[in-house]
What does this fold into?
Amino acid sequence: MHNLYRFAVAGLVAATLASSSPAEILHFHAALTGKAEPDNTGSDATAEARVRVDTVRQLVSVKMAVHGITIDQLWKKLVAAPIGPVHFHQYKDDGSVVLALPLPYGATYRATRDGFRIVSRDYDYAAGAKLLASALSFDDFVAAMKAGKVILNVHTDKFNPGEIGGKVETDDESAPASTGY
It folds into this structure.
């Protein structure tokens, strides 16, 4: 009986290990400015973002530091809306734009001395895309980010379409890993 129990436990462990696939974690970054295309606003504000994507669980994590834009300058209409004032947008070759993923305003936003920061961990892509009624699938979002066709931008009262923005780019695999992501 003891051997049968050990055999059953070993079988369960083997089945669990076989069914679980390792997460592929992708790392991206973006440097946002007011001089970025497509919306060159001339703003002196800047931001740096680090993005981590778990392709198995379809989760997106973002750490972003914004300088020169304060929380009270964010587009109030979007602060009050479930989608928030910071978004990922896919820019297509035909010039059209697809809203891909918002970073809803809330506890993940914190004021800093000269702007604000966002720390959003393990944000469910499907839930975020649903807020925007985005038709962009998770796989298409990841492919667009890998291809450099996704822009991250910050919408303000002064510049509703986005005061600063920047292309999301794949991290160089030889670069040192960022802390925390």
